[in-house]
Each structure stands twice: as C-alpha cells, then as structure tokens.
Design a protein that fits this description.
This protein starts with 11 loop residues before the first helix and ends with a helix. The chain has 11 helices and 6 strands. The protein has a 6-stranded mixed β-sheet, sandwiched between helices.
Length: about 210
C-alpha cells in the first residue's frame, strides 16, 4: 500500500511541482525554458508526462501569447468547463475577458437550423469579437476545422490557437491543420487533450504574466 503523505493545503501545489520535476529528471527530460511552466502545469493538471513530448509550440509562441494577453486579448473556449477553469480575475487585470458561446440558446437554434455543430457556430460568433482573440479549444475538433475554414475563405484569421481537443474522430486531423499554418499555436499532437488542459495552458500564461507584473 502506498504511504499517505500529509501535506498542508498551501503546500500541495508546491509539492506536486517538486514531484513533477523529480520525474522529469528521472526521464532525462529538459523542457525549453520558455515552455517549461506551461508544459509543467499541463502535466500537473493531467498527471500525464506524455505532454512533455507531444505539446508543440510554434516559434516564439509563448512570447506571442503573453503579448496578446498583455495587450487585452480575449480568450474564447469551446466548453463551459474550460471557461470555468480559466482564472478570469487575472485575465481581467490585463483588460481581457473570457467567452464561451456553446450554451447560448441562439447558437443552439442556429446550429440546428443550419445542420451544423454548436462548436462551428460558436467559432463564427467568436470571429465577430472586436480586438484580438486567443482560442482555447479543448473538446471540439469541429471548432478548429471551422476556424481553419474561415481562414481559407479569407473571412477571419485567429490571433492565436491553443488546440488540445480530446477524442477519436477528426481530432488528430484538426490539430494538423494548424500545425501546418502560419497562426501562432500551442497544440497537442495525438488524441489527448481536454478542457482541463486548455484551461491549464491559459492559466500558465496568466500566472507567468502576473509574476512579471510584480
């Protein structure tokens, strides 16, 4: 039986990151300095060390994402779970807001009328937001496909894409669309991901920016 370790509530996260560092060392994994805290927080959220290998970053992705947030960019998610997980108070410190349109009644009605997914209609709705937008997609590959189609049609180009949908149908193909694009991204290759991972990436960026303000 594994021994129970008694840790004070305030020390749990610190202890968790110490364990993560120890296991990264055991695996001989050294994370790039700019990506370190993002990948580390995803591992913390998922307890899955595969992310150390499968999370892919476009050139200067972290710097570009932080600059967008610093200048008031909004974040759009494809699930209310991801929306709930993002630290909106910290985001608001930089002038940004977080949105999810998936549960809006008019989105559901339009999706049914047009024979589309709510994720697709939500992305069309998000494309009308004024200002810069970071898309944090953790569930619906259709959201990534729609954003890519909007780009191909010359209608809209996202400022940044966090593409970590989880699942089996179209998930890998949807991620590959952005791996080959000019849009700055943080994408997890393969089937793994989820709303919790999308929120973790957003929060890692926000917490690093908060530290930089101090």
């Amino acid at each position: 039986m594994t021994e129970i370790e008694f840790v004070k509530p305030a020390e749990i996260e610190k202890r968790s990151f110490e364990i993560i560092q120890s296991e990264l060392d055991e695996r001989g994994i050294i994370l790039p300095a700019d990506q370190d805290m993002i990948t580390r927080r995803v591992i913390h959220t998922s307890a899955d060390f595969d992310y150390a290998q499968t999370l892919k970053y476009s050139p200067d992705a972290v710097c570009k994402a932080k600059e967008l947030i610093r200048n008031g960019a909004c974040i759009v998610t494809d699930t209310n779970m991801a929306l709930a997980g993002i630290n909106k108070k910290v985001l608001a410190q930089f002038g940004g807001e977080a949105y999810c349109f998936m549960a809006d009644e008019d989105v559901a009605a339009e999706a049914k009328q047009r024979g589309m997914t709510r994720a697709a209609v939500s992305m069309e709705r998000a494309a009308k937001i004024a200002g810069k937008v970071i898309f944090a997609i953790g569930n619906a590959p259709t959201a990534l496909i729609t954003l890519y189609q909007l780009m191909q049609d010359g209608i809209y180009t996202p400022d940044f894409v966090i593409g970590v949908p989880v699942g089996f149908v179209n998930v890998e193909a949807a991620k590959e669309l952005f791996l080959g694009s000019d849009v700055p991204y943080i994408i997890n290759k393969g089937r793994k991901g989820g709303s919790n991972v999308a929120a973790a990436i957003c929060n890692a960026l926000l917490y690093e920016l908060q530290k930089e303000k101090c």
